Amino acid sequence: MPATDSIAQSDAWRALSEHRGQFTGQTLSQLFAADPLRAQRFSASAAGIHLDYAKQHVTETTLRLLLQLAETARLGGQIEALFTGACVNRSENRPALHAALRDAPANPGVAGRFRQQREHMLALAADLRGGVLTGAGGLACTDLVHLGIGGSDLGPRLAVSAFPRLDSGPVRVHFAANLDADALAGALADCRPDTTLFALASKSFSTLETLSNAGLARQWLRAGGIAEADLERHWIAITSRPERARTWGVAAERILEFDEGVGGRYSLWSAIGLPVAVALGPESFTGLLAGARAMDEHFRTADPQHNLPILMGLLRIWQVNFWGHATQAVLPYAHALRLLPDYLQQLVMESLGKRVDQQGQELSYATGAVLWGSEETNGQHSFHQLLLQGTQVVPVDFVTTARAHCAADQHRQLYANCLAQSRALMAGRSAGELEAELLAAGEPRERARALAAQRAVPGNRPSSTLVLESLEPRHLGALLALYEHSVFVQSAIWGINAFDQWGVELGKQAAAAIDAALTGGDAGDLDASTRALAEIWQSANAEPR
To answer: What helix, strand, coil percent values describe the chain, rounded to 5?
Structure first.
């Protein structure tokens, strides 16, 4: 791996910096006008996904220089290290094994164990769907409530919500992640204690939110008449710390394990996917894996200039480091994918929100971008105003499907709107053209000029469009793996660790200390602001005199 800041001092980086200046005064519309084959040159397809990045500020020279940057960072070797189980997570001294969960090539020592873990999970899901698992009263469980947060919640929640038409099994699946007790209360609103099963999903089996909700679930079961001796029949644990789950009260045969080398935000492919197998059936879960595995193989073997994860990762670096774009929008034109931005927020910002390299040296260049988005066309009636006419340039990923995933007429309109928004960002509309129209309509010249300035859309704003062949589990799996690997490409070139999250750990520690202070413990060295805010809570919750 390159030494600290060497990538920013490399010939490839300097060449890209100089090349960036060549776009001054040159618009995307001009690039299209100069090259009738531009759409074909700057697009690629794999695993049922077509990537069109022709509306990005790239030329063949840009692509060549970005690929030289990847070579300088020895990206090929780092990709191989990821897939063969090398220690790519240096701060925690472990590999990143999420691709191995999908049967991608990895350390031979884990393949068999991962298959056993998957078979155990799928068997448990089949028993639950088949009515074999019963509650304390002997009735088949009708509801599974998944308790997790972050990576142990976002992935399964996205996958289950993406395929409501496949949710034909006898067991309803609910999710509760927030520490706010109202989240769990909402999930339990239509559940019965004697037929409800809880899945406690926590890699460490020490996550505050998950264990807090589990405690509330235990109280709910007891209040519903479940005897202490029968509580075991209402728990499943998904964790890398089975001994902690057993101590908590989960029966050994109900504990699903996954490896320490699988990060939370990469854990959908593990036993954390239990809600997917329960709600959608085992074929849907294995379909997710198959699509992701197809993208794994493409990432590992395809030529870099046609390699979707490499191209997307390099485009992000081009946007962040050479264009100064600090934010990125992901806009799915499918209601079923409405949770995709939420999922990607964690994947991208927890992975790339780093300010030092893998040797602990502070970096001189930006890493990562703020990711956000929503389902479309809702966003067109809210924040697209800023995208089209605001002072900030926000690169956009549009996500859509070629085949209808909803009523045919509505799908056609969704697809048309998706293409229209990407074209409007690129082409815009000039003030001169608008002024001429207003003058022709009889507006006075001064008013026409003022109105034209207000209505003008500058254009020349970059976007990519991802078209899934259809909305199926395998295509969702490929899409998520595409984003995973594009994140790895960025981290490899920036020299950062995509697989730790020490900032998150600090927040957990601080919350525990302040919680102790709220209940009368030592407040320690709290700053004046935090101490004053703590006193507000103490005053509001003091016992009445």
So the answer is: 55, 10, 35
CA 173 to chain centre: 21
Give the CATH number of the domain where residue 369 resides.
3.40.50.10490
pLDDT digits (tens, 9 = 90+) for 348-375: 999 999 999 999 999 999 999 999 999 9
Q: Is residue 448 part of a domain?
A: no
CA 394 to chain centre: 18
Distance CA 362, CA 348 (A): 20
Looking at the domain assignment, is residue 274 inside a domain?
yes
Same domain, 357 and 319: yes
Quick one: DSSP state of residue 89?
B
Q: Is residue 237 located within the same domain as residue 329?
A: no
H-type helices in 188-330, by residue range? 208-223, 242-248, 274-280, 282-301, 308-317
> What is the per-residue pLDDT across 384-433, written as a single tens digit (0 to 9) for each?
999 999 999 999 999 999 999 999 999 999 999 999 999 999 999 999 99
pLDDT in tens, 463-502: 999 999 999 999 999 999 999 999 999 999 999 999 999 9
Distance CA 296, CA 479 (A): 11
Residues 384 and 468 in one domain: yes
Active-site pick, 18, 253, 433, 508:
508
Known catalytic residue: 508? yes
| Active-site pick, 146, 203, 298, 350 | 350
- Which residues have CB under 8 Å from 140's CB, separation 6+? 131, 132, 133, 134, 170, 195
Is 179 a domain residue?
yes
The pTM assigned to this predicted structure is 0.96
Residues 404 and 347 in one domain: yes
Would residue 381 show up in a list of annotated catalytic residues for this protein? yes
What domain range is 207 assigned to?
110-287
Q: How many domains does the chain contain in total?
A: 3
Q: What is the mean pLDDT of the chain?
A: 94
In terms of domains, do 270 and 161 share one?
A: yes
CA distance 231 to 302: 51
Cβ neighbours of residue 220 under 8 Å, at least 6 residues apart? 188, 193
Catalytic residue at 306? no
- Does position 2 have pLDDT exceeding 50, yes or no? no
- β partners of residue 489: none
Is the model's pLDDT at 301 over the cut of 60? yes
Residue 491 · residue 498 · CB < 8 Å: yes
β pairing state of 463-468 and 49-52: antiparallel
438 in any annotated domain:
no
